[in-house]
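hey so u asked for the seq, here:
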Amino acid sequence: MPLYETSDHRAEEEIMRHAIEREWNCSLHKLPMKYSLDYVACRPDADHQDDRNIVGFVEFKRRLIDSTFQPSYLNYPCYMLDVHKITSAQMLWNTFGKPSNLVVKFNDKTGWVKIADDKPRFTNLQMIMAGRKDRNDPNDHQPYMLIPIDSFNWIT
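ran it, structure tokens below
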């Protein structure tokens, strides 16, 4: 499977990482690709005064559109997240009780939405089969959840 991450992607991710660490008062540690999510979020606790205590997981995305962009096939702005990311995040919750958040940097602002914890999140949302076609990669076409933009929390 090809890897499409570039040095520009990694630089954007570093900027987002620092912003989230400040916003959430945590440290983020990059995960190997096999985990499906990008980072673990850590904070000290009574037993570990350093930053090894995992409190959750984070997936970063960058979209070169405004947060208000509305796809022609919908009557509301949304973010498409592949179902595999959601199921991976939910598995981490089900197994370890650690929540997962999606952080998306749009052109106009950065927001986050919880994608896994003890509450069903996506049972009433639309799921579609979609994906990129510009890379001629069949792995780009898969099931996606359409997450309404109004469910995002915005980072200051």
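The mean pLDDT is 90. The chain has one domain: 7-154.
lmk if thats what u needed
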